[in-house]
Fold this protein.
Amino acid sequence: MIHPRSALGRALPLALLALLSACQSEKVGEFFNPPQEVQAHSEFRISGLPALAYPNLVSSASVEGGQARVDGNGPGYMDLQFFPITSADALDSTDAASARQSQYRAPDLSGIDFSTQFAFLVAHPELSGYAAMTSGQYATFFSTVKVAYLDDRVVVHLDASRLGNINPITALGSPWAGKLYTLERRGRTQLEVKLYENRYRFTLVPDTAPPMAP
C-alpha cells in the first residue's frame, strides 16, 4: 500500500516543489538575517525620468487578482522609478546633461567602489513646480529602503507611498527627484527588489554596451 503522504508528494509538480523550497529557504535566510533599513548617501534632482544607458532587469513577478505572473517587463509606475547602478557610466548621458543647469543636481556616484558596492536609485516626480501648480495637483512621496543578504542575492525591500493626486501628463512634464543608496555587493551578482506583492530581479554584473551589429 502507498502511504498517502508519498502519493501526495509525487503528485506535486516539480516546479511547485522547487518554488515552495525556495520560499522556505528565503524565509529562513531572512529570519537569521532580517532586512535592515539603510539611509541614502545623496539626493538628486533632474529634468525628467531617470534612466539607465543599458537596462539590467532580468525578470519580474507580480500578483494580479491573486494569480502570480512572471514576465520580463520592468517596473511601470508613473510616480516611482528604481533600479541598481552597477558602474560609474551606467546612467543615461541625457540625465547628466540636464543636470548641468543650476536648478538640477545630477546623481552623485563619486566615492562608490563599484567592485564591492552598487548604487540603488529611487526617484519620484517632483510635484511642486509650475506643472503641478497649473494642474492643481500636489503630491508628497515617501520611500524607505531595507536590505537583506541571502546566499544567492541581495534583497531590497522597497516601501513607497504617495500623499496627493497625480496624472501621467503631470508626471511626464515634471522634474524628478530622488535618492541614492550605496549597498554592499558581498559577492552577490543578483538583486531582487520587493515592492508590495511584486518582485523584480536585476543583475549586478557591471553594465556593458550591446554588441555592435555586423
User: Anything to note?
Assistant: Residues 40 and 181 are 5 Å apart (CA to CA). The first helix runs from residue 4 to 11. The first strand starts at residue 36 and ends at 37.
